């Protein structure tokens, strides 16, 4: 479980995910997600803080960032999503398409001295 540094409360957990697609398949993958995954994912996780494609660098990659109250909030929301038949169907379609090469997930907390990131809901 994620623990805050001494003297600091963790009041936000950011799930920063980077995905890499096979060259030439990024738009196809995002179209598949937009049609079959977005609704199910946002139903459980809420709106992402950001959903971004790469302007420079690895143009076959994209990033999305989700905000949670804490690790328990993340675990509960992701468990509900993983049990959703619509999400399960999207994962199957995605696996069959074979567009994704890799995924990297980082769980991050805001630094004490800077403002917390706003969620897409403005929280």
Rg is 16 Å
Let me know the number of strands: 4
Q: Tell me what portion of residues adopts beta-strand conformation.
A: 15-25%
- The total count of helices amounts to 4
**Class by SSE composition:** alpha+beta
So, CATH architecture?
2-Layer Sandwich
Mean pLDDT: 90
N-to-C series of helices and strands: EHHEEHHE
Terminal CA distance: 24 Å
Shape: globular
Q: Roughly how much helix do the residues carry, as a percent range?
A: 25-40%
Tally of individual domains: 1
What is the class in the CATH system?
Alpha Beta
Q: Describe the sheet with the most strands.
A: 4 strands, antiparallel
Report strand order across the widest sheet: 2-3-1-4
Keywords:
about 120 residues; about 25% strand; 4 helices; alpha+beta; globular; four-stranded antiparallel sheet; Alpha-Beta Plaits
